[in-house]
Structure formats: C-alpha cells, structure tokens
Design a protein that fits this description.
The radius of gyration is 16 Å and the shape is globular. The protein starts with a helix and ends with a helix. The longest helix is centred in the middle third of the chain and has 29 residues. The protein has one domain. By secondary structure, it is mainly alpha-helical. 25% of the residues are buried. It is 83% helix and 0% strand.
Length: 129
C-alpha cells in the first residue's frame, strides 16, 4: 500500500512540473478557492482576503512546482485550523448565546478538513524530497 501511495505522489509530482504561468495560476487559484469557500460558509469579513493574499505570496515564493502544490495543501489546512480556533475564541470572548460545544460541532468541518489538508500536504512535501 505504501508503494502505491508513493507512486501516486510521484505521478502527481510529475504532472505538476508546471511552467511559470501555471505556477502563478496555482498560486492565485488556491487562495481564490479559499476565499470563495469561506465567503459562502462563514462571515469573517476582510480577514479572509488578508489570509488569502498571504497564502498567495507564500505559494508564489516556493521554488518548485511540487513545493507549491504541497504548500497549497498544508498552507490552506493551517489557515482552516486557525479559523476553527478563532471561531471558538470569538464565541467565548464575545459572550455568544450559542454554547461553546455547539460552535465547536457546527464548525468542526474546518478542523477536520484543515487537518486532512495539512497531513496530505506534508506527506506530499516529504515524498518530493
């Protein structure tokens, strides 16, 4: 099973030997998808745009296409995990009428998807070295 996953990661890495134009598309496309996802599902305001701009810069500064793809996954996952924690903090700090456990379960998908993206991105980064 491990060999199959490494082969799959190798195939993804090979297909992602991007030109500069394609790398820019990835560096801009991933943050745009991040913004669209959180504008539709949450009300974080301008914070999402700031995080997406930072993510775009982070992705564009990666030296290879494989690093860009891996950073897109784990960078987005880290932002999602951070937004989950921020949502819990805001609920407690602002004295919301919703119980903390209610908020935690309502936005649990942030943490689950974020963790999956972090693990997947770090795995891709490791297999590319």
């Amino acid at each position: 099973m491990g060999k199959r996953l490494q082969t799959a990661a190798g195939n993804v890495s090979e297909s992602m030997s991007l030109t500069e134009r394609q790398r820019v598309i990835v560096a801009v496309g991933v943050p745009v998808l991040f913004v669209v996802l959180f504008e539709i599902t949450a009300n974080f305001g301008v914070l999402i745009l700031i995080l997406a701009a930072g993510l775009a810069v982070f992705l564009y500064t990666r030296s290879t296409a494989q690093e860009t793809v891996a950073a897109g996954a784990y960078g987005t996952g880290l932002l999602m995990d951070g937004l989950y924690l921020l949502e819990l903090y805001w609920n407690g700090a602002q004295g919301s009428t919703e119980p903390l456990i209610g908020t935690a379960t309502r936005v649990l998908w942030y943490a689950v998807l974020g963790t999956v993206l972090v693990v997947g991105g770090l795995w891709l980064r490791q297999t590319n070295r």
